[in-house]
Amino acid sequence: MANARIGIIGGSGLYKMDALKDVEEVQVQTPFGSPSDALILGTLDGTKVAFLARHGRNHTLLPSELPFRANIYAMKQLGVEYLISASAVGSLKEEAKPLDLVVPDQFIDRTKNRVSTFFGDGIVAHIAFGEPICQSLALVLGDAIASLNLPDVTLHRGGTYVCMEGPAFSTKAESNLYRSWGATIIGMTNVPEAKLAREAEIAYATLALVTDYDCWHPDHDSVTVEMVIGNLQRNAVNAQKVIQETVRRLTENPPVSDAHSALKYAILTNLAKAPAETKDKLGLLLQKYL
Ligand SMILES: CSC[C@H]1O[C@H](OP(=O)(O)O)[C@H](O)[C@@H]1O
Ligand SMILES: Nc1ncnc2[nH]cnc12
């Protein structure tokens, strides 16, 4: 299958990339079922990339319904080594205002109903997740944003993304609790993706687009989908500029990432004795270690 070293997952409000050229739509099948939608292969300034609309191009999938494993495995099948997640988030800090961009470096997982591993069925692995975001990729992403000097947009490097289950937004008590933990932003999608990307040895970083102040802020009405999408649409052009510049920099200078060898010390099972069916299913992830 066509080799795209860089993948992009577009979240709420980012259902396509206008700058993509030589576009080809591919229906990818994986051992974990079908991804959220067709993957869009194309080139950005000559670099091949794979784009996927996380909730489907018509936004038909709830965060809890997302086929996270199929989405990440499909990226792996296409040859992706660097994955950029563009995501709408609520802000939990006054200084991260709507339309700002955050490149988080930590997560707090509050999901309850997600499958976040490829392993099981006779093969056990425990990846390190102390640094859940690839810091080399985050650096390239942050530098790309900074270089663009986007008007009225502040870049926040680092910060903690709370991943909640949803689909209802938080209560004020929850929002204030997350603030008391020092968290910066909140969304519903990135933790399962980041865990699976790490298991798939794909470097993963998040471009978080602030769309609202969640519900804690005394001067802002509580969050609505209208507010999120309105601000995201205002920001979609910026998001695409950032992605294009990040792809340009990654092409010029692909960074070394610990994520690319994440399974090296993570697999506990003696693979020689592991069930053949599971080895087949996880083929792409395990091939280096068999
Ligand atoms: C439309 S508001 C809630 C929705 O937006 C975020 O999506 P994504 O991370 O895919 O940009 C959030 O996580 C929720 O899924
Ligand atoms: N306030 C919020 N909570 C959870 N997910 C979001 N996505 C965008 N805004 C959000």
From TrEMBL:
Which residues are marked as site: Important for substrate specificity? 170, 225
Keyword Glycosyltransferase listed? The answer is yes
| Record-listed phosphate binding positions | 12, 54-55, 87-88, 189
The entry lists its GO molecular-function terms as: S-methyl-5-thioadenosine phosphorylase activity
One Gene Ontology cellular component term attached to this UniProt record is: cytosol
**Catalytic EC class:** transferase
Stretches assigned to the Nucleoside phosphorylase domain = 5-247
Q: Which GO terms describe its biological process?
A: L-methionine salvage from methylthioadenosine; purine ribonucleoside salvage
What InterPro entries does the entry give? MTAP (IPR010044), Nucleoside_phosphorylase_d (IPR000845), Nucleoside_phosphorylase_sf (IPR035994), Purine_phosphorylase-2_CS (IPR018099)
Q: Record's Pfam families? A: PNP_UDP_1 (PF01048)
Give residues annotated as binding substrate.
188, 212-214
Give its E.C. classification number. 2.4.2.28
Keywords from the named record:
Glycosyltransferase, Purine salvage, Transferase
Q: In which pathway does it act?
A: Amino-acid biosynthesis; L-methionine biosynthesis via salvage pathway; S-methyl-5-thio-alpha-D-ribose 1-phosphate from S-methyl-5'-thioadenosine (phosphorylase route): step 1/1
Reactions that this protein is recorded to catalyse: S-methyl-5'-thioadenosine + phosphate = 5-(methylsulfanyl)-alpha-D-ribose 1-phosphate + adenine
Q: Which NCBIfam families match?
A: MTAP, PRK07432.1
Primary role: Catalyzes the reversible phosphorylation of S-methyl-5'-thioadenosine (MTA) to adenine and 5-methylthioribose-1-phosphate. Involved in the breakdown of MTA, a major by-product of polyamine biosynthesis. Responsible for the first step in the methionine salvage pathway after MTA has been generated from S-adenosylmethionine. Has broad substrate specificity with 6-aminopurine nucleosides as preferred substrates.
Its quaternary organisation is:
Homohexamer. Dimer of a homotrimer.
Its family? Answer: Belongs to the PNP/MTAP phosphorylase family. MTAP subfamily.
> What name appears for this protein in its UniProt entry?
S-methyl-5'-thioadenosine phosphorylase
Q: Which source organism does the UniProt entry give?
A: Cylindrospermum stagnale PCC 7417
Taxonomic path: Bacteria, Bacillati, Cyanobacteriota, Cyanophyceae, Nostocales
